[in-house]
Amino acid sequence: MRTAVLREPGRLDIEDRPRPDPAPDEVLVAVGEVGICGSDLHYYEHGRIGDYVVENPLVLGHESAGEVVAVGERVTDLEPGDRVALEPGVPCRRCAHCKRGEYNLCPDVTFMATPPDDGAFAEYVAWPADFAYRLPDSVSTREGALCEPLSVGIHVARRAEVGVGDSVLITGAGPIGLLAMEAVRSAGATDIFVSDVVDAKLRRAEERGADATIDPTEEDLGAAVADATGGEGVDVAIEASGAKSAIAGSLDAVRRGGTVVFVGLGDEAEVPLDVLDIVDNELDVRGSFRYRNTYPAAIELLADGAVDAAGIVDFEADLEDTDDAFQRAMDPETVKGMVRIGK
Ligand SMILES: NC(=O)C1=CN([C@@H]2O[C@H](COP(=O)(O)OP(=O)(O)OC[C@H]3O[C@@H](n4cnc5c(N)ncnc54)[C@H](O)[C@@H]3O)[C@@H](O)[C@H]2O)C=CC1
Ligand SMILES: CC(=O)[C@H](N)C(=O)O
């Protein structure tokens, strides 16, 4: 089968590899579409993310969906012909976190495209059947692949406990910020503000229904949000850029008693936080890491037409052109590129 393999930073080669066989609990999936994520771009550019270093050739891609072509002998609920979205992180199922149901925190997770585990820029992937979710006819294979970043958005909306009528600020209008916007809207948020430092991203957020957008290089984020909320601040701030200034800005923009959730992963792990401000204003400050139990909700939201995930896509490319697609995806105005491999 053909695969796109990262052998050294800045170079993806198309290589033949043996087609995997499904284990007894696995399905063999002919991959249809795969999204290019910021973490794929980071490995492509730098060959590492923090302690995860690409030491051996690595197949990138963890936002994927496709068609089941074979099932292992113990798989009873999927069959060849089913289209499925693949949840890329498979936890150990045994540790304390897995037992508590917070399997996204499992320290022994196998996560596609995270060294040493290969991802989905390949014609076939064998994957545990219980992490492959059947797509109804009303959900496209592309939308199935986008269940992954949508899941990040759903989890952050759940972590923020967004409620009906809430006002929400989202800093960063990349795929995560834009899909968090879809998730918080479906959770009942009515006033959604989005900030970004790239004009095209702000326009994109407006086209996709943001009530107001803010460029923090042109106006103070906290002051702009205060103006727009009668001086009070938003109920919830979701930080989805990883930028140091947006981390501080999201704390300034939230109302007393409000909630700030950090999902962005910045290059700088340490940023000053005014703890007295957090205490005095009784803020809930939370992190949000990947997702758990979100794929069924993502598929339902897509099937109901309650969220538009495919609208974030700027372009698609063939597997052979994955290297070019990565170059295009690095343009700061691009939100999402997809690689089409099969049906
Ligand atoms: N916690 C988690 O589970 C996950 C975290 N992430 C992280 O979430 C963040 C967002 O992911 P993507 O949307 O894929 O990234 P992205 O890089 O495509 O989007 C980030 C956006 O933030 C904007 N930005 C930069 N500085 C800003 C500032 N000062 N204020 C407002 N916006 C600013 C950029 O222009 C860009 O549009 C990244 O840091 C990523 O690493 C991504 C997936 C999962
Ligand atoms: C950080 C990412 O972009 C990726 N989705 C991951 O969860 O590792």
Describe this structure in words.
- The chain is of the alpha/beta class and 343 residues long.
- The chain folds into two domains: 177 residues, Quinone Oxidoreductase, Chain A, domain 1, CATH 3.90.180.10; 137 residues, 3-Layer(aba) Sandwich (Rossmann fold), CATH 3.40.50.720.
- It has eleven helices and 20 strands.
- Strands 3, 7, 8, 11, 12, 19 and 20 form a seven-stranded mixed β-sheet that branches. It has a six-stranded parallel β-sheet with strand order 15-14-13-16-17-18, with helices on both faces.
- Strand 19, helix 11 and strand 20 form a beta-alpha-beta unit.
- The protein is globular.
- It starts with a strand and ends with a strand.
- Bound molecules: 1,4-dihydronicotinamide adenine dinucleotide and 2-amino-3-ketobutyric acid.
- Belongs to the zinc-containing alcohol dehydrogenase family.
- Its cofactor is Zn(2+).
- Pathway: Amino-acid degradation; L-threonine degradation via oxydo-reductase pathway; glycine from L-threonine: step 1/2.
- Its EC number is 1.1.1.103.
- This is L-threonine 3-dehydrogenase.
Brief synopsis:
The chain is of the alpha/beta class.
Helices and strands in order, then pairings?
Elements: E1 2-8, E2 11-16, E3 26-35, H1 38-46, E4 48-49, E5 52-53, E6 58-59, E7 63-71, E8 83-86, E9 89-90, H2 96-100, E10 110-111, E11 124-128, E12 132-134, H3 141-145, H4 147-159, E13 167-171, H5 175-186, E14 191-195, H6 199-207, E15 212-214, H7 221-228, E16 234-239, H8 244-253, E17 254-262, H9 275-280, E18 284-287, H10 295-303, E19 313-318, H11 322-329, E20 336-340
Parallel strand pairs: 13-14, 13-16, 14-15, 16-17, 17-18, 19-20
Antiparallel strand pairs: 1-2, 1-6, 3-7, 3-11, 3-20, 4-5, 7-8, 8-12, 9-10
The structure holds 1,4-dihydronicotinamide adenine dinucleotide and 2-amino-3-ketobutyric acid (AKB).
The site of 1,4-dihydronicotinamide adenine dinucleotide (NAI) has 27 residues, from helix 5 and helix 8.
